[in-house]
Write a structure and sequence with these properties.
The protein has about 240 residues and is mostly beta strands. Helices cover about 10% and strands about 55% of the residues. It has 2 helices and 12 strands; from the N terminus they run αβββββαβββββββ. Strands 1, 2, 3, 4, 5, 6, 7, 8, 9, 10, 11 and 12 form a 12-stranded antiparallel beta sheet that branches. Strand 10 (about 185-195) and strand 11 form a beta hairpin. The protein starts with a helix and ends with a strand.
Length: about 240
């Protein structure tokens, strides 16, 4: 009789824990964003000439986790985050003939341009997760859509001129350009990633975000003729879900 009572108590406790783990939970997420832009017309996005490189930014916001199955192996984990994306461009002039052609004096050894453009979005990713443990804990894999709204753009350019001899370098920074009318306000894309979440709600994850809608405002351009430029970003996030009552 004691064994039956102990077994009954153990099963009841397990059921209570499973229910708590698979319940709806809310929390916060934050981390780093490593982004650029791509596409055959990405060089037409406003900014100085040069190759499009990755830039480092950050993301932070609120999250939720809703069970899609009673055992919690399937969950949906939407987020609402502020995400600083963008890109960097740079190029250098060091060939003597090229420097002379561009009007630089004979004592100029090298000229470099660094252009950084920050694109700040409010993003809403809605990934579906496949969890390797009940209640959304353990290793997980995620895939889903994302929509975003660009709230700000900031562009800065730094010109560095290096001279021969003992003359000091000249560094010139342009005023901030906050215009964003050259780009579309809304972005549509997808996310894919993996991570690990503990039963207490602490998680760490990595994610790739690919834009599927061109960055250009193409309301009056046919799909065949619209220029192609898309957001691309890698993200590392740490999260915490509040415990359920």
């Amino acid at each position: 009789m004691k064994k039956i009572a102990a077994l009954t108590l153990a099963l009841a406790s397990a059921a209570t824990v499973a229910h708590a783990q698979s319940a709806t939970r809310f929390g916060v997420r934050f981390g780093g964003t490593y982004s650029t832009i791509g596409g055959k017309n990405a060089d037409q996005v406003q900014g100085f000439t040069g190759s499009n490189d990755y830039k480092l930014g950050y993301n932070a916001g609120i999250s939720a986790q809703f069970p899609l199955s009673s055992d919690g192996f399937w969950t949906i984990a939407p987020e609402l985050i502020y995400n600083r994306k963008g890109f960097e461009r740079s190029y250098k002039l060091s060939d003597r003939n090229t420097l002379t052609t561009n009007g630089y004096a004979a004592n100029v050894d090298k000229v470099s341009f660094e252009n950084k453009r920050v694109l700040s979005y409010i993003d809403l990713p809605i990934p579906v997760r496949v969890n390797t443990a009940p209640g959304g804990s353990g290793l997980y894999f995620e895939l889903g859509p994302q929509v975003g709204y660009m709230v700000a753009s900031k562009q800065e350019t730094t010109l560095t001129v290096k001279y021969s001899g003992n003359q000091s370098d000249m560094v010139t920074k342009s005023p901030e350009n906050k215009a964003k009318e050259d780009l579309a306000s809304f972005d549509i894309g997808g996310v894919a990633g993996l991570g690990y979440q503990t039963e207490s709600g602490i998680s760490i994850g990595v994610r790739y975000n690919q834009g599927l809608k061109t960055l250009f405002d193409t309301k009056n351009v046919s799909a065949k003729n619209e220029p192609k430029a898309f957001n691309r970003a890698f993200m590392v996030q740490v999260g915490y879900l509040l415990p359920t009552r």
